[in-house]
Design brief:
The chain contains 16 helices and 27 strands. The chain is α/β, with parallel strands linked by helices and 650 residues long. The protein has four domains: 67 residues, no CATH class; 181 residues, Rossmann fold (3-Layer(aba) Sandwich); 180 residues, P-loop containing nucleotide triphosphate hydrolases (Rossmann fold); 86 residues, Alpha-Beta Plaits (2-Layer Sandwich). The longest helix is centred in the last third of the chain and has 15 residues. Bound molecules: zinc ion (2 copies). One zinc ion binds next to loops.
Length: 650
């Protein structure tokens, strides 16, 4: 009789089972857990020899599936250890629900042809390509180039290089729904589409892709975060495009940063990894400046396209008239572009009509009954909605508090309201609103891109969905409705994120021969971040930010961990948070801040408190946290979540 450790795709650790023969690590088996018969994987963990052998349950069935590759198992172990999650929770991300089903007619993944077409490169691009091709084993490269400098085409050459060596390639993109343009470029270069991995592919495609990645017939996979956990047969290159993008951080379930984990995956392969960005994250930039990463520059825009002129529009000067959100300067610019038949983009990073509805009669603000958050008005749909929990109700026609009729007024702008104002100013304008409410599928997005490309739209109005890598040759004006918006949060990365986002939005203007113009509306024209944007001085901004973080020992110069304590019973939740803080170890290089009420004090009916742990980089923070939290008895109704390297602080 052998003891076999089995891991199930559930938020648990391994359990031992009995089997007549030894089974190789990675074998798929079926065994009972509680009363259920579940699929599990034989894991590379020492069995617990102290458990009496006669009490072990048997493995019910050894499934006739290929084993899970050893490197995938090693990666799962690493991610679980680093993020302090149960092994099974991470395994769940690496499998899919239909793993036992075999397709009768599996999808065919045609091999990309590395020699399908060639691109004429500039001298700078040629040099960058050469540097990328010389990357060996595990090396990290930052491909650092302004928007429109041809980063994608340059890293395509590294993909071709890996394909020539019969290796697989993984490309991670943020907001995978918006990848149509990227896929077209890929097809132009390699003759076929790559394999896709994201939440909206069908179960069958998911099943076939997973298997094709495992047996090596899917050679290039483009995916969202979770593609990292695919069972690659022979991974030879990883590319993380827009590496700075906050959406690489998963904020529910297992909290992990796909960019950081991709670096770990590359080190285990081992294979090179390319991080591409026009506005690198501070973490990556520091590593490049310090020489730990190769720093590859692409200094100029492709085909001589110029960066846009940037103007700050001071909104403190009150203008008369009923128009609220679009300044005179921006109105003039929009008018001029319409007359020239050029396109404009208005950026406001807020969905809906207005972020707040209040009663003129009694001052009540409409709040979500489940969260400490205001309800956003969606005028088109006639509803008010909580953007945190999704709570939605019909827009009331009287105040729910004082019952005064027609007393509710919208405060502040969202995409819908800016669109309404544009139509007041330019009734003939053909506009398109672009948010996650209006675009829900890749097909819709493709249709919109076609209408933009064919000149059927004059003014685009949208959220950050618009900011990502699209190429609109006739778009020459970008108007940022509220450049101050992102700065208000005041968290660690507020400045960095604002800089990245606005830089990216502005990069949409004038990507071909026509010079672009970007207008930033602001109430704080002296703000350093806006100044740096205006002067196109990214490195000055990064250096400033770097020295500030260094002084405060904030990431990347120190480590941060968020501990979020939440529960329906407020007193019990707070008590737990306080006990955790009291049990914190005293040691040099460790600071524990809090507990404080979280900025979103209530979310989905749960009260929330936060602790922030600041630690020297030399401390083994995971071990420390584990020993520390072991000493606190946590009531089952209270949830304690650990967020290593937090990105959101709400
Ligand atoms: Zn009222
Ligand atoms: Zn809510």
């Amino acid at each position: 009789m052998q003891r076999i450790p089995v891991l199930f795709p559930l938020a648990l650790g391994c359990y031992d089972y009995a089997h007549s023969t030894d089974l190789p690590v990675g074998t798929f088996v079926r065994a009972t857990l509680g009363r259920k018969k579940l699929l599990g994987v034989v894991w590379d963990k020492k069995p617990d020899e102290t458990f009496p052998e006669n009490k072990l349950k048997p493995i019910l069935e050894v499934l006739p599936l290929p084993v899970l590759p050893h490197k995938t198992i090693r990666f799962i172990n690493w991610v679980a250890g680093y993020t302090m999650n149960a092994l099974g929770a991470v395994l769940k991300m690496a499998l899919h629900p239909e793993i036992e089903k075999v397709s009768k007619k599996p999808c065919v993944f045609l091999p990309p042809n590395p020699n399908f077409s060639t691109i004429a490169f500039s001298a700078a691009q040629e040099k960058a390509v050469k540097q990328l091709l010389s990357l060996k084993d595990f090396q990290v490269a930052l491909l650092d180039g302004v928007t429109g400098s041809g980063k994608t085409e340059v890293y395509f050459e590294a993909i071709a290089h890996a394909l020539n060596q019969s290796k697989q390639v993984l490309v991670l993109l943020p907001e995978i729904i918006l990848t149509t343009a990227w896929l077209n470029r890929f097809e132009k270069r390699f003759g076929v589409q790559p394999a896709l991995w994201h939440s909206s592919i069908t179960q069958k495609t998911r099943r076939d892709t997973w298997e094709a990645v495992r047996n090596g017939s899917a050679q290039v996979v483009v995916g969202a975060r979770s593609a990292l956990f695919l069972p690659f047969k022979e991974l030879g290159l990883i590319v993380v495009d827009e590496e700075h993008d906050a959406s690489f951080k998963q904020e529910d379930g297992v909290l992990y940063n796909a960019r950081d984990m991709a670096i770990v995956r590359a080190s285990q392969a081992p294979c090179p990894i390319i991080l591409a960005s026009a506005t690198p994250s501070l973490e990556t930039y520091c590593n490049a400046v310090d020489g730990r990463y190769q720093h590859i520059h692409l200094p100029e825009r492709f085909a001589g396209a110029m960066l846009p002129d940037i103007e700050l529009v001071d909104m403190r000067k009150k203008e008369k008239g009923p128009i609220k959100f679009i300044s005179k300067r921006l109105q003039e610019a929009l008018k001029e572009k319409m007359e020239k038949h050029e396109q404009s983009l208005l950026f406001i990073n807020r969905r809906g009509y207005a972020p707040l509805v209040l009663c003129r009669a009694c001052g009540t603000r409409l709040q979500c009954p489940h969260c400490s958050a205001w309800l956003t008005e969606h005028k088109g749909a006639g509803v008010i909605q909580c953007h945190h929990c999704g709570y939605t109700r019909k827009m009331p026609n009287e105040c729910p508090c004082c019952h005064e009729k027609e007393s509710l007024v919208a405060c502040g702008p969202g995409v819908e309201r800016v669109a309404e104002e544009v139509l007041t100013l330019f009734p003939m304008a053909r506009i398109a609103e672009i948010t996650s409410d209006t675009l829900t599928s890749p097909e819709q997005f493709e249709d919109l891109l076609n209408r933009i490309q064919n000149g059927m739209i004059d003014i685009l109005i949208g959220t950050q969905m618009l900011a990502k890598g699209h190429h609109f040759p006739n778009l020459t004006l970008v108007g940022v409705i509220d450049a101050d918006m992102g700065l208000a949060g005041g968290d660690l990365r507020a400045g960095e994120r604002t800089f990245q986002l606005l830089n990216q939005v502005m990069g949409r203007a004038g990507r071909e021969a026509k010079k672009g113009l970007a207008l930033l509306q602001t109430y704080a024209p002296d703000n350093l971040i806006l100044k740096a944007l205006q002067e196109n001085n990214r490195n000055a901004f990064l250096s400033e930010e770097m020295s500030a973080r260094q002084l405060l020992k904030m990431p990347p110069y120190g480590k941060l961990v968020g501990i979020i304590i939440s529960g329906k019973n407020n007193a019990l939740t707070y008590q737990t948070a306080k006990t955790i803080a009291q049990k914190a170890p005293f040691m040099k290089g460790l600071d524990v801040l809090g507990p404080v009420v979280a900025p979103i004090a209530k979310l989905r009916d749960k009260h929330r408190y936060r602790l922030l742990v600041k630690a020297d980089k030399t401390l083994k923070i995971q071990n420390l946290l584990q020993n520390w939290l072991k000493q606190v008895k946590i009531h089952p109704s209270v949830d304690v979540r650990i967020d290593i390297d937090p990105y959101s602080f709400f």
